[in-house]
């Protein structure tokens, strides 16, 4: 797997990068990987000016039920945007440390696009970014809620269209 200096980001799938705030500000890394879309899973960390498309998922990693619920409520809109941008080219999903919020978004992406279950997605991400979800997945309830609703409502609708 390709990695920027210091493991600020790891490639989870070809063109899908999971990382920290440092990776989001590393213009050389972003340019070398062709990243034009950045998903910032924080309330206040700045974007670099070098990327064309910028998205924010304003969630704090404070283990408050309200923040976990916010992640779950915003997840479908965010994952739709992640899927759309991923089809256009390489993307970076990041939070402050690249361990919890951004990893949860990437897990939801894997559930939606690869048919993975929550535990499988978490394991897959940890194999590629060992610091992800350490010491445990703070947004597990949000990921499980996304999986439950996706499997119940969205996956059957998608299957009926094919």
From TrEMBL:
UniProt keyword annotation of Ligase present: no
GO BP field: negative regulation of MAPK cascade
Domain Tyrosine specific protein phosphatases: start-end pairs: 77-140
Gene Ontology annotations for the cellular component aspect, listed alphabetically: cytoplasm
UniProt entry keywords in alphabetical sequence: Hydrolase, Protein phosphatase
CDD domains for this protein: DSP
Domain Tyrosine-protein phosphatase: 8-152
A molecular-function term among this protein's GO annotations: MAP kinase tyrosine phosphatase activity
Protein name: Dual specificity phosphatase catalytic domain
UniProt source species: viral metagenome
């Amino acid at each position: 797997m390709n990695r920027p200096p210091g493991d600020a980001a790891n490639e989870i799938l070809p063109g899908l990068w999971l990382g920290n705030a440092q990776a989001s500000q590393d213009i050389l890394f972003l340019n070398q990987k062709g990243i034009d879309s950045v998903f910032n899973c924080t309330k206040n960390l700045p974007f670099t000016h070098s990327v064309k498309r910028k998205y924010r998922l304003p969630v704090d990693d404070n283990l408050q039920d309200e923040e976990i619920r916010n992640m779950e409520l915003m997840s479908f809109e965010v994952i739709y945007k992640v899927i759309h941008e991923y089809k256009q080219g390489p993307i970076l999903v990041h939070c402050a440390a690249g361990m919890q919020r951004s990893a949860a978004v990437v897990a939801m992406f894997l559930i939606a696009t690869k048919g993975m279950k929550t535990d499988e997605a978490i394991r897959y991400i940890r194999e590629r970014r060992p610091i992800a979800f350490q010491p445990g997945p703070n947004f597990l309830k949000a990921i499980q809620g996304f999986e439950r609703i996706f499997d119940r409502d969205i996956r059957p609708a998608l299957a009926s269209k094919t």
